Automatic annotation (TrEMBL):
Domain of life: Eukaryota
Keywords on record: Calcium, Metal-binding, Repeat
Name of a matching Pfam family: S_100
GO molecular function, one term: calcium-dependent protein binding
Protein name: Protein S100
UniProt-listed PROSITE patterns: EF_HAND_1, EF_HAND_2, S100_CABP
Length: 93
């Protein structure tokens, strides 16, 4: 991964993780806000519950940075699938 992309991930994480509770973990609502802001509404709604259940590996109700990195990897794959599908259906993108 490029350094710039890594820095952006870290910045994004801390932008939302510091809003409430533990400064270094994302609560459910912080995660939701992050997804809404960064992904847009439609994707975020379906993603947030799934993501929280899948990624909260230690079940503490918070997403720490390690869990967040795994999320970003998963989302990159999901987005890629999404765009590939769009391309297949519409062809205009
Ligand atoms: Ca927090
Ligand atoms: Ca956790």
């Amino acid at each position: 991964m490029q350094l710039g992309a890594m820095q952006m991930l870290i910045k994004t994480f801390h932008k939302y993780s510091g809003k409430e509770g533990d400064k270094y973990t994302l609560s459910r609502s912080e995660l939701k806000e992050l997804l809404l802001e960064e992904l847009g509404k439609t994707q975020a709604q379906t993603t947030v519950e799934k993501v929280m259940n899948d990624l909260d590996a230690n079940n503490d109700g918070e997403v720490d940075f390690t869990e967040f990195i795994i999320l970003m990897g998963a989302l990159t794959v999901a987005c890629n699938d999404f765009f590939l599908e769009q391309k297949r259906e519409g062809g205009r993108s």
